[in-house]
């Protein structure tokens, strides 16, 4: 049994929130799967054991660069939980290898791995770090898919990106730079400092007025009849069955580039456009008496607000929970307009431009709102209030009665996919493709859209939802709409809402 040292470190407020969500089975975690082109020297004649040993050495070297991927946690049932230092990691408990033969459907195997990772809770928290990986080897041996998953308590979406960046660098290192020794797939962990809490790495100021206005909502809760129209009553909160479903949509690079060009021309961003398009799909697929209005959310990364010299820990390279949530409301009048415009355009395609104009106008408004939030930095955000909450489980149970957000768009941006200084030879490892996804959230957004791309490639949009809460046809239909509209924009320069 893996023993942990006496060294322990209390979880901080933001970590306590995520930890409570996992304990209550409200949320499982994140997954970032990357397809690695295998260096030529490891293709073909390389034996399976040599290949896997090379890869696992690289994973070990990458993991130790991120302390929160090397620790366990104790006291899960109590109000106060702790990170604990572990003395070793056994890959038999974390990494599963699977070779997909030529007769098998690689995509089917890949989707199955994603689905398992978003639904399987993390166990043995006291003795194991909260991450795992399924590695799918192609029949030809020219690429591997690394499906890396982790408990959100450990880190946000960017944390997964940092791991893959580290793994890519380690794969391309010369063998003599390897300081890890694997013994029966297990290795000793070096003693490293715990990752400091976020509020030690950047300031999270909150004003008295913000504190009062936020907590007054808890002190004077609204009655059921007074709930705002944006509340996602159409997606009731159910603790069981807790099962996530997934649907992925991919845009090729030749489609993505003109879409991004159109966003720049319209003074908006892809994230804002996605929100706007999702609102059209949701408005036309959900009846007005079920949803007169919507509220959506966007996670915003705080790493950019770290001031130089505040800490030796660089947030832009550190696995940690460093995001805040920015909401946007689609008011009843706007949603009614969208529904009417779509209805009017069905028999008269010439009216399609009215919907397009509305979509771009809303996207521009969302971009302005996001820009305003970024100008505020980390000031007056609910994350700064987390220190006032001492019992996260009770807090989450109290707030798990109403669903606020109908959907979320979480955009991890663009991965470089290659190491700096690469000369362009084939005898090196590189990332060719990526898929980012998350488990469904019992009381969070009903639909979670996760976005990522690799430089020079296309973009993948993954949608997740909870079985029995969101109808499969609705979630798959919204995903289909978004893919069709973006493909139309990229290929034809316009969005056709009448198809």
TrEMBL record:
SUPFAM superfamilies linked to this entry: CoA-dependent acyltransferases (SSF52777)
Molecular-function GO term, any one: N-acetyltransferase activity
InterPro entries reported for this sequence: Alcohol_O-acetyltransferase, Atf2/Sli1-like, CAT-like_dom_sf
Signal sequence interval, chain numbering: none
Residues in coiled coil: none
Gene3D superfamilies xref list: Chloramphenicol acetyltransferase-like domain
A family per Pfam: AATase
UniProt cross-references to PANTHER family, sorted A to Z: ALCOHOL O-ACETYLTRANSFERASE 1-RELATED
Official protein name in the record: Alcohol acetyltransferase FCK4
Organism from which the protein derives: Gibberella zeae (Wheat head blight fungus)
């Amino acid at each position: 049994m893996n023993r942990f040292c006496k060294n322990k470190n209390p979880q901080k407020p933001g970590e306590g929130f995520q930890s409570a969500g996992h304990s209550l089975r409200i949320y499982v975690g994140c997954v970032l799967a990357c397809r690695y082109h295998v260096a030529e020297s490891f293709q073909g004649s390389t034996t399976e054991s040599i290949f896997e040993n090379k890869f696992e050495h690289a994973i070990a070297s990458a993991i130790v660069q991120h302390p929160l991927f090397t620790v366990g946690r104790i006291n899960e049932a109590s109000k106060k939980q702790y990170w604990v230092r572990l003395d070793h990691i056994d890959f038999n408990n974390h990494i599963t290898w699977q070779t997909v033969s030529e007769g098998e459907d690689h995509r089917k195997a890949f989707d199955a791995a994603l689905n398992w990772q978003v639904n399987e809770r993390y166990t043995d928290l006291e003795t194991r770090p909260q991450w795992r990986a399924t590695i799918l080897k192609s029949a030809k041996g020219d690429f591997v898919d690394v499906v890396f998953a982790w408990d959100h308590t450990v880190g946000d979406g960017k944390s997964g990106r940092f791991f893959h960046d580290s793994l890519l660098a380690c794969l391309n290192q010369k063998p003599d730079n390897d300081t890890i020794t694997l013994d029966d797939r297990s290795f000793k962990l070096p003693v490293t400092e715990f990752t400091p809490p976020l509020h030690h790495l950047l300031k999270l100021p909150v004003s008295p007025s913000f504190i009062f206005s936020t907590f007054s909502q808890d002190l004077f809760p609204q009655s059921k009849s007074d709930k705002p129209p944006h509340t996602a009553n159409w997606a009731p909160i159910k603790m069981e069955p807790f099962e996530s479903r997934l649907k992925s949509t991919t845009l090729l690079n030749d489609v993505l580039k003109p879409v991004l060009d159109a966003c720049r021309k319209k003074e908006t961003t892809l994230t804002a456009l996605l929100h706007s398009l999702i609102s059209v799909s949701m408005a036309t697929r959900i009846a007005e008496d079920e949803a007169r209005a919507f509220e959506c959310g966007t996670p915003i990364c705080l790493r950019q607000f770290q001031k130089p010299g505040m800490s030796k820990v660089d947030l832009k390279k550190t696995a940690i929970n460093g995001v805040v949530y920015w909401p946007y409301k689609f008011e009843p009048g706007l949603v009614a307009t969208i529904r009417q415009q779509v209805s009017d355009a069905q028999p008269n395609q010439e009216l399609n431009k009215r919907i397009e104009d509305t979509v771009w106008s809303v996207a521009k408004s969302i971009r302005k709102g996001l820009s305003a939030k970024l100008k505020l930095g980390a000031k007056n955000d609910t994350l700064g209030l987390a220190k006032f909450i001492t019992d996260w489980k009770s807090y989450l149970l109290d707030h798990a009665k109403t669903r606020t957000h109908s959907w979320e768009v979480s955009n991890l941006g663009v991965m470089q996919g290659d190491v700096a200084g690469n000369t362009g030879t084939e005898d090196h490892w590189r990332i060719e493709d990526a898929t980012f996804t998350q488990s469904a959230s019992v009381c969070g957004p009903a639909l979670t859209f996760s976005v990522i791309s690799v430089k020079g490639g296309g973009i993948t949009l993954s949608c997740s939802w909870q079985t029995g809460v969101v109808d499969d046809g609705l979630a798959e239909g919204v995903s289909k709409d978004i893919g069709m509209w973006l493909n139309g924009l990229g290929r034809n320069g316009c969005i056709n809402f009448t198809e």
